[in-house]
Amino acid sequence: MTLSNEIENSTSSKASPKGRFGGAMQKNIAVILGDGIGPEVTYQSIKVLDAIGKQYKHKFNYEYALMGADAIDKTGSPLPDLTLEICFRSDAILFGAIGHPKYDNDPSAKVRPEQGLLKLRKTLELYANIRPVNTYASLHHLSPLKSNRIEGVDFVIFRELTGGIYFGEKKINEEKTQASDTCVYHKDEIERIAHLAFKYAQQRRKYLTLVDKANVLETSRLWRKVVQDLAPQYPDVAIDYLFVDNAAMQIILNPKQFDVVLTENMFGDIISDEASVITGSLGLLPSASVGNTIALFEPIHGSYPQAAGMDIANPIGSILSSAMMLDHFGMLEEAALVREAVEWTLTNSFVTKDIDPVNFYFTSTIGDMVSDYISSTTHERVNMKNVELRKSTII
Ligand code: IPM
Ligand code: MG
Is 166 a catalytic residue? Predict the structure, then answer.
């Protein structure tokens, strides 16, 4: 995949380019279900992709691969070689979630599930993680923020994903009393994601915010310099610089001000979880990780082990990640239909327990509803009888 390709694909869906990429396609998708709720949310995405496939005569072939705690249990490694092989021979990767409490609570564990995801990101050079944040009118009441603050919130976080403190040298002394993690960035690593973010901003409201800690960190000063040096190439884009502590506050105080937010790896991890709360649930947000090779699509939420296997997790973050995958394939009309179906479920209060703890629907029912909506030519013919049967009876 080329960068311009990604930018074009992921931004032009609003332009309704009907027929532009028409024609049946065949795509091979590596599916990594992962841990906790990963499998159950990802299965809903597969239902939805199959519904799209049927409707538009595309063929999606899935090849399943292991990663995370699941892979450690089965193979001893959080990222088996076979998983990499499967990813390399696919057109895109659909990923669920990673993490297990038995590792979280054991700081001395040598092998950890997250190592699998980090190694996959690094090996595939998925250096840009794109996390869109928008709100849904029907869910405004769920946001911890007042409605007037969140109406019309629409921004995208570009998080650097293969550098910084996540990947710098890690040390602990023999007595295990002192530890360090090194944060390293090279100009080239900053430039490549900055170009992506600038181009993305050019196709939106032309406003880029760099989030850093340049008053304290050398790496942040480098980020600022590199971004300032690139700015003349994008004269139509206005740039703002915010320290990360201030940015964390601004995301809550006035989230509408943001358009494209560019930041390094760890700051991006933190502010994207924070930003997700604005929408009403962490379970709603999708992401795409892109680089020079195959792109990966995953919800931003974690493995939520307490809910695993209970059919209560929110599949929308995963389903919207599949929509980003369709955009990436150039299937823009298809992606728009998935988003329309998702909006339809939310507007009609067909939501999971995280959104409505009393009148909620199960994970699998939401997957069925989104797929039914896609499959029906009138986009109305959802089987309400099944829907009622699968509704929670907790009142
Ligand atoms: C994310 C997650 C990961 C990260 C973890 C699971 C390693 O929090 O994708 O945001 O920190 O990048
Ligand atoms: Mg995170």
Answer: yes
**Residue boundaries of the structural domains of the chain:** 1-131+280-395, 144-160+167-279
Concatenate the DSSP letters of all residues of 34-89 into one string: ESTTHHHHHHHHHHHHHHHHHHHT-EEEEEEE--THHHHHHHS-SS-HHHHHHHHT
Q: How many Cβ atoms sit within 10 Å of the Cβ of residue 375? A: 17
State which of 269, 270, 276 you would mutate to test the pocket of ligand 1, scoring each by most atoms of that ligand within 8 A of its C-beta: 269
Give catalytic status of residue 273 as yes or no: yes
The catalytic residue among 273, 311, 356, 391 is 273
CATH H superfamily, domain 1-131+280-395: Isopropylmalate Dehydrogenase (3.40.718.10)
Query: Domain spanning 144-160+167-279: which CATH class is it, in words?
Result: alpha beta
**Which residues sit with their C-beta closer than 6 Å to ligand 1?**
98-99, 114, 117, 269, 300
DSSP string, 116-139: HHHHHHHHTT--EEEEEEE--GGG
> What ligand has the least distance to the C-alpha of 274?
2
Please tell me the residue having the least CA distance from ligand 1 atom 10: 269
Longest dimension (CA), the chain: 67
Q: Which two tokens stand for residue 378?
A: 């009138």
C-alpha 350: how far from chain center? 22
pLDDT 10s per residue in the chain (395 long)?
Answer: 333 344 444 433 333 333 444 689 999 999 999 999 999 999 999 999 999 999 999 999 999 999 999 999 999 999 999 999 999 999 999 999 999 999 988 888 889 999 999 999 999 999 999 999 999 988 888 889 999 999 999 999 999 999 999 999 999 999 999 999 999 999 999 999 999 999 999 999 999 999 999 999 999 999 999 999 999 999 999 999 999 999 999 999 999 999 999 999 999 999 999 998 898 889 999 999 999 889 999 999 999 999 999 999 999 999 999 999 999 999 999 999 999 999 999 999 999 999 999 999 999 999 999 999 999 866 655 656 556 655 554 43
Q: Is 353 assigned a catalytic role? A: no
> Is 213 an active-site residue?
yes
Could you say which ligand is closest to the alpha carbon of residue 298? 1
Q: What is the pTM of this model?
A: 0.90
Give nearest CA residue, ligand 1 atom 8: 269
Q: What is the DSSP letter of 231?
A: G
